[in-house]
Amino acid sequence: MLSYIIRRLLLLPIILLGVTFLIFCVFSLLSPMERLATYVRDPAALKSPQSAERLIDKYHLDDPFPLSYINWINRVVHLDLGWSQAANQPVWEAICQRFPATLELVLYSIIPVILVGIWLGVISAVHHNDMLDQTIRVTAIIGWSLPTFIFGLFVLFIFYGILGWLPPGRLSAWAQDIVYTGANFKSYTHLVTIDALLNGNIPLFLDALRHLIAPIITLSYISWAFLLRITRSSMLETLRKDYVRTARAKGVDEHTVIHLHAQKNAMIPVITIAGMMIIGMLGGVVITETIFTYPGLGFWAASSAQQLDYGSVISFALLFATFMVLGNLIVDISYALIDPRVRLE
Amino acid sequence: MNRIIRKLFSNASSLVGIVLLFVFIIIALLAPVIAPPLSEDPYQIPRMSWDVNPQPPGFSMSDNIRDIYDYMGKDLKWDISICGTAEGGYDIFYGLIWGTRTAFRIGLITVAVASLIGVFIGSISAYFGGWIDEILMRITDIFLSFPFLVAAMVLTTILGRGLDKVMIALITFGWMGYARLIRGSILSAKEETYVMAAKALGVKDIKIIWKHLLPNTIFPVMVQGTMNIGSMVITAAALSFLGVGAPIGYADWGQMVSFARNWIIGSPGHAGQYWYTVFYPGIFIVLFVLAWNLIGDTLRDILDPRLRGEL
């Protein structure tokens, strides 16, 4: 167990190094001039050949591959990620400013994924092959076939276009005034809903929540459709185990058999997948935030991509890959902690 | 094999999938008949007007565009927008029909190439084992460290717009699942006696992999491939939706949805006025992906030994 964790931890730097190397390879597909543009704040500096050449030298963009890679890594480690044209500020600042919004969205989206996905999955397995199971299963496949961007537009259309309940963005104009310029408002966590509660401002909390609901629905539905499938098959397998039959034969009531005996064991693979699903939401963030013009990292990345702001896009990939590597590490280790069979090996 | 085909046709949900897929194949094959191209490049959606606003179904081509066709001496084979036009006057019906070809092209090519790469790397890794396995699997891990959509978006942004670039990006970050799958199967299959026998007879490694191991282990990869066609098409469409995929005006469903983005709300007092801009391309994407998923889902249940005989 301990050796497994140590092995995983030792692999971490190697994987991260590989990730940066891969990103740098992609980055190197650009010409030195294009790469230079990601560091320069004022486009005028690129106009004259002399100053451009001087800057290319300064940033070691035309050096042999290994040298320019080391140089680039050095700058990345010092968080010098260049200038974001799309955000009109340094890339690292842009990331720090937008991170809380995305974090808030992802954190809230975990709740429906776990609750709905696991709950429906168990129901589906218990009612294996009858009408209810078929309905849930087909709904899940349809949900899975429905791309996020179409589903999101649909949600926007219904809840904003027709009903006018759930507006896009992160806050209404009056709420923005309070959060960003209000004298009495203290930002403790930069998660607006939590800050609003800490400041005792209930209308602000409700406003933030109102803006969050539609993106949460959009971001989470694909994940719960998937989690439902995993829960269903894991539960089906467990329900066929001998110990479940024994419990039933002993006369234990069906509710206890399903929820106490079977569900506990069936949840082991589900927890791993749930962790992976939450990590998987990172990709969905880009589309969801773009649809609802929610000012997080994904929205910024998408608009950077449209404006060919290479520096921001590359940094975004680097950041999300790091999240994913760390997330996978946590999932793997917690899996080992949860499952006694893995622990004993 | 016969058993699988019989089950595919006897299961209600996969039957729906097969019928849907059949319809799409017909549409793709008959595209030039259903929607005759108006220009040299059939994948370029013809514009029905220069107007930014979408036009409702039944809209007839505006006069100034008619004049251009007259001037070039071409006779118009059709001039009514059956499903209306998207932002910028692009004809929706035409885009749907030719977009079917685009979807098949993206789905089939990316899955075929990605699975080939994956099978190649996975089988080498499993068969030779040792440090070759260690290195190849760590490389796989590194490629797996990116959220698929994010990786594809970044690579397409760097490479530039275009369907070929989209496919390159999807393949680059789409082969790892196959590599892991085939590696697992070969790891257990290579201990079998028939492989030992072949080795003892002095058969070359490559021939053992190609002639003995792959035929016995390739089936799960094919199932996985079927399931993946849908997700590849969705991701390609998502890239177009984000504005980094197909060039503007290319017959591609994702781009048609992205055209609809600014119009989905409708104008004040007329919510849903432009429903046709998102409804038609949306329905096509969903049905196409659904067809593949229904077939793949049933295939998986059939081949899952734990569920065998219970379907």
Description:
- The complex is a heterodimer of chains A (about 350) and B (about 300).
- Chain A is an all-alpha fold and about 350 residues long.
- Chain A is about 75% helix and about 0% strand.
- Chain A has 15 helices and 2 strands.
- Chain A has helices at about 1-25, 30-35, 50-60, 65-75, 90-125, 130-145, 150-160, 175-180, 190-200, 200-240, 240-250, 255-290, 295-305, 310-340, 340-345, and strands at about 85, 90.
- Chain A has a two-stranded antiparallel sheet.
- In chain A, a hairpin with a 4-residue loop joins β1 (about 85) and β2.
- In chain A, α12 (about 255-290) crosses α13.
- The longest helix of chain A has about 40 residues, at about 200-240.
- Chain A starts with a helix and ends with a helix.
- The mean pLDDT of chain A is about 80.
- Chain B is an all-alpha fold.
- Helix content of chain B is about 70%, strand content about 5%.
- Chain B has helices spanning about 1-10, 10-30, 30-35, 65-70, 90-130, 130-145, 150-160, 165-170, 175-190, 195-200, 205-215, 220-240, 255-260, 275-305; strands spanning about 60, 80, 265, 270.
- In chain B, the strands form 2 sheets. Chain B has a two-stranded antiparallel sheet. In chain B, strands 3-4 form a two-stranded antiparallel ribbon.
- In chain B, a hairpin with a 2-residue loop joins β3 (about 265) and β4 (about 270).
- In chain B, α5 (about 90-130) runs antiparallel to α6 (about 130-145).
- Chain B is elongated and about 80 Å long.
- Chain B starts with a helix and ends in an 8-residue tail after the last helix.
- Give a count of the beta strands of chain B, DSSP E runs of length 2 or more: 4
- SSE ordering of chain A: HHHHEEHHHHHHHHHHH
Tally of helical segments of chain B: 14
Proportion of residues in extended strands of chain A:
under 5%
- The strand order across the widest sheet of chain A is 1-2
- The helix content of chain B, as a percent range, equals 55-70%
| Mean model confidence by pLDDT of chain B | 85
The oligomeric state of the chains shown is heterodimer
The largest inter-chain interface, given as chain pair and residues per side, is: A-B, 56 and 51 residues
